[in-house]
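Continuing the batch. This is chain 6 of the set; chains 1 through 5 are on the previous pages. Same settings as before, nothing changed between runs. Recording input and output for traceability.
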Amino acid sequence: MFKDKVLKALEKIRPSLQADGGDIELVGVDEAKGLVKVSLRGACGCCPHAAMTLKGGVERMLKADVPEVKEVVAV
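Output for chain 6:
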């Protein structure tokens, strides 16, 4: 259930990243810790602003859609 919610939320975020030549992939979730592991791909993977995108964009939006999310990390 938690993973499904996260995947659904990522689908809402994905078009914005793809518009800039990047993408995001779910690597794993730890429901007990509220941890979501993602991999930024394409232009997002090597962008100097990737950390800001991850924390200010992806994490913020995931937390809004899935309140159980406590942290999002890139792997």
